[in-house]
Design a protein that fits this description.
Elements: H1 2-19, H2 24-46, H3 57-81, H4 84-91, H5 94-104, H6 112-130, H7 142-162, H8 170-194, H9 203-231, H10 233-238, H11 243-251, H12 261-276
């Protein structure tokens, strides 16, 4: 899990660096075309039985579209319009959002502590978004709104996947959902790919793309799945509270990424909310990109 946290924490900045040379949709198309194939090959070696249980394909396909196609589109376009720090902090509020949503849908009971956790996390997110003001002159806050939409997509994906974890391993679920979600990302990214001037892509961008694909996507997904099996979902997910801290520290090395007091206050509120609602909350944490 320490490696997962490092890989995910560094991914926000690695992606921002890459987006300076490769457009967001082209970046995501390349990343998932390569990553889904590599992950599928690795799953074949780790879990030779990759076939889906009867009658599960369309359910998995729907989850793949929500949890990969739509989530990744909101994430990458949102990240291209906001800071790596804002993105990491907003995504950190995911666990209490998932829990309270599950309670509202009658999927599990929620406690007053978990409701309080959502309130704290929500206040933290609003503080982070308001740190730049709502004027476009202060930056494109619409990127923050897209990251919030990504939170909604992953919430739907997580609640859907909970119904299937008893029939498939977390790793096989991840592989199938990525395979079914990748085609949409590739199709959406094709026009952008045709317009990329590859001779102008910097070595920093290629390095960021390799990092985001090989480490943050393929390696982290494998390691996360193994960690969930060995530690349990709740204990493994607790580590993800550290991701915003790592992301912020790494982002400080990028021009224009200077977290302020509002980010500190918002981050503390978000992490406090996540920790407060931890008991029995975490199931599947979002992939940090």
């Amino acid at each position: 899990m320490a490696l997962v946290v490092l890989f995910w924490g560094g991914n926000f900045t690695a992606t921002k660096v890459t987006l300076a040379s490769i457009p967001p949709l082209a970046f995501t198309a390349i990343r998932f075309a390569i990553g889904s194939v590599l992950l599928w090959l690795l799953i074949g070696r780790l879990e030779p039985k990759r076939a889906l249980p009867p009658g599960m394909f369309w359910s998995i396909a729907l989850l793949g579209v929500v949890g990969n196609t739509l989530y990744q589109l909101c994430f990458i376009i949102g990240l291209s319009r906001t800071s790596a720090t804002n993105t990491a902090l907003i995504l950190a509020a995911m666990p209490p959002v998932v829990t309270v949503t599950a309670g509202l849908l009658g999927m599990e009971a929620i406690t007053n502590r978990q409701r309080a956790a959502l309130v704290l996390a929500t206040l933290g997110v609003l503080t982070v978004i308001a740190s730049r003001g709502l004027s476009l002159a202060q930056g494109d806050w619409r990127g923050d709104v897209l990251i919030l939409a990504a939170v909604g997509c992953w919430t739907g994906y997580t609640l859907g996947i909970r119904r299937m974890v008893d029939r498939m391993s977390p790793l096989r679920l991840t592989g199938w959902s990525m395979i079914t979600g990748a085609p949409g990302l590739i199709l959406v990214g094709l026009p952008s790919l045709m317009m990329v001037r590859w001779d102008t892509v910097t070595w920093q961008a290629w390095t960021g793309l390799a990092y985001s694909t090989l480490l943050s996507l393929v390696a982290a997904y494998i390691l996360w799945s193994r960690a969930v099996q060995r530690l349990g979902a709740s204990r493994a997910a607790l580590y993800t509270c550290i991701v915003p801290l790592i992301a912020t520290l790494v982002a400080m090395g990028v021009p224009g990424e200077r977290p302020g007091v509002a980010h500190l206050i918002g981050g503390v509120l978000i992490v406090a909310g996540v920790l407060l609602g931890n008991a029995g909350v975490f199931r599947l944490a979002p992939p940090e990109g």
